[in-house]
Amino acid sequence: MAKEENKKVGLLKYLTFAPESRTDGAVSEPIQTGRFRYFGYVFKRRNGLLMFANIAFVVTLLPLLAVFIVMAVFGAEKLSYMLGSITTPPYFMSGIGFGLSSTASVLQAKLDMLNIYSLMFLASGVAMLFVSIGLAGIMPVAMKFIWNDSFVCKKDNYGNQVPRVMVEFFKGIKKYWWQMLIMGALMGIFLAGAGNAYVYFLGRLWQGLAGAGEWILIIFVSIATLLFLMFTVYMLPMIVSYDIPFMQKVKNSLLLMLQMFLQTLFVVAFLAAPFVIVALTDGFINVILVALLIVYGGVVYSLILSNLLQYYSEKIIVPVYQARFSKARPKSKKKK
Fold it and tell me: Disulfide check for 142: which of 38, 43, 301, 306 has CB 3.0–4.6 Å away?
């Protein structure tokens, strides 16, 4: 029996255990309705309050949105002409492979457009620093609603206590900004690095120069990016859930990622699906999806991540914590 329990615990025995950083100091009660239903309950009941936090979060998204708006309005081709100070766009023979204009070849025009995408990924990486500040505000608000924790409140006209979500949002920024800024820098590095790796690979492929080195690079970058996204699934809510040193939060997130590898892989695929659809579609569908992501994305994603971590806390972390410390209590009694 002991061997079977150790197999179930696995890497989780190396977790750093600590109480949840709830304001009221209580222990979160087990969710009886199921996590999917509980997510729907919290989102439906607290949607109005969560929208205030989402508005503040969208403000920190503006630099990132500006990058994509510029790309959507002008397009990579026109921006490449502007960057190259080309006032008269060249004309190309479709499918022939060379330009009718003496200014550029078809291949060179495609490579120039890749340079624009390279700049886009670099600018997006920098914009992630601003996004991280918004995450420092919205993540603790989402986690408080998942915990059903106490809020700073004020009375409305009917005498009801209404959570002051914006106060909690800025309290979160004050407390977690530097930890989220580290994560924002890492997200920016991966976004800019992975994006430029794919741009470089496409450029070499179009030129017929892609060899084993380029293929190894793109495979390595793809795997590293996937692992980082899986780590981020736990790290973002972990930052606001426990008052333990930052590196202990990193360790806990890595352990959960490795122990729950397949489950986390599914979660990443599910969360990435809307962005993949946006990237592959255009027109009316694209506009609707982008609008939904802007209006509800921050709230929905922060609630999903908070709900996921709290699920593992309830089902795994807390039982392991209780098992470890219940064994230590009899020993302390014997010493007395």
Answer: 306
What integer is the mean pLDDT of 223-240?
98
- The yes-or-no verdict on residue 227 having pLDDT over 50 is yes
Asked if residue 203 belongs to a domain, the reply is no
Angle between helices 35-83 and 283-312 (to 10 degrees): 130
3-state SS of the chain: helix, strand, coil percent to 5? 80, 5, 20
In a domain, 311, yes or no: yes
Which 3 state secondary structure label does DSSP give 81?
Answer: helix
Residue 263 lies in a domain: yes
- The string of DSSP codes covering 190-225 is HHHHHHHHHHHHHHHHHTT---HHHHHHHHHHHHHH
What are the structure tokens assigned to 297, written together? 């994305």
Give whole-number Cα distances, 32 to 20, 36, 38, 101, 187, in Å: 19, 11, 9, 69, 35
Neighbouring-strand partners of residue 155: 161
Q: How far is Cα 46 from Cα 41, in angstroms, rounded to an integer? A: 8
**Across 192-219, average pLDDT:** 97
* 211 occurs within a structural domain: no
Q: Would you tell me how many other CB atoms lie within 10 Å of the CB of residue 154?
A: 11
Residue-level pLDDT at 99: 43
Number of domains forming the structure of the chain: 1
CA distance 199 to 141: 37
